[in-house]
Amino acid sequence: MKKTHRYILVALVAVLSFVSCRKIINTNNSGSSHTPTPKVEETEPAVLTPQHVVINGCIKGFYQAVPAHYHETNELYPVLICLPGGGQYGDGNIELPEILTEAVPKLVNENKFPPSFTVNGDPYSFIIIAPQFSREPFAFDLEELLIYVKANYRVDTSRIYMTGFSLGAKKTADFAAEYPYQLAAITAMGGAMNITEDHAARCKVMADAQLAAWQFHNVDDTLWDYHESERFVEEYNSFSPAIPARLTLFDIGQNRLHHDCWTRTTDPEYRDADGRNIYEWMLQYTR
């Protein structure tokens, strides 16, 4: 009797295994939602619109720029969070256009930001989010913005990037030190993490998280000393990270006490020795 039960059990397992394998084969060969859809290679400029959304007491509005065909696809898109400098504080409403005077938002507003970037043979188009600050932000202010973005946009969460200039560069580093696993790569221009007692520990957190970081500064910057960026990269790399932090120094800066290194850096025509602009460099990294 026991032997009969054993034969029945073996036969049942065999049947279930066959059915299960067949289901996997059919799913992979069907036109179901599991089949990846080809990426849309955008050729038209991103659509820029103001968003008068109160995220918290610091962020009361932002600009979004979504790919031209965003609403015609079901794709997930990489996100680029662009943090402004302290000279662009505002109410998120009437004063929001101040955000469009510098860096990436300026390029988007002038239709000078490429609609698509090709990395490793695949085209990528960013969702760009540019918040305005009413005061100096804390890392949790930016975390609340990111929570909102993830909930309201089709985000490829493995490709979230942050860039910032001046104050925005410092806040990019602060956020990355608090939430390093939220980001795949950062670029910071004209500012770095404040040198405090926990500087080394904060750098180690980012290095251990394998967060890609590229720092820019002008040697003749008379507002914030370039040694700040130099110290950050040196400390970061002292932990032998899998992805070493990069430092690019320009001898002569532009505008505002030679503080501006972001106008040339955010220009898509600016490229490193490997022929990549900062956007292509960031897109090579995923979380």
Q: Whole-Å distance between the termini?
A: 56 Å
Largest sheet strand order: 1-2-6-3-7-8-9-10
Contiguous uncertain segments of 5+ residues: 1-36
By CATH reckoning, the class would read Alpha Beta
Distinct helical segment count: 8
The largest sheet is: 8 strands, mixed
Number of strands: 10
Structural class: alpha/beta
Describe this structure in words.
This protein is α/β, with parallel strands linked by helices and 287 residues long. Mean pLDDT is 88; it is low at 1-36. The protein is globular. It has one domain (44-283): Alpha/Beta hydrolase fold, catalytic domain (Rossmann fold). The N and C termini lie far apart (56 Å). Helices cover 32% and strands 21% of the residues. The chain has helices spanning 2-29, 103-109, 139-152, 167-178, 199-208, 227-237, 262-266, 278-283; strands at 47-51, 59-66, 77-83, 117-119, 122-124, 127-133, 155-165, 185-189, 212-218, 246-250. The strands form two sheets. The protein has an eight-stranded mixed beta sheet with strand order 1-2-6-3-7-8-9-10, sandwiched between helices. It is built from eight helices and ten strands. Strand 9, helix 6 (227-237) and strand 10 form a beta-alpha-beta unit. Helix 5 crosses helix 6 (227-237).
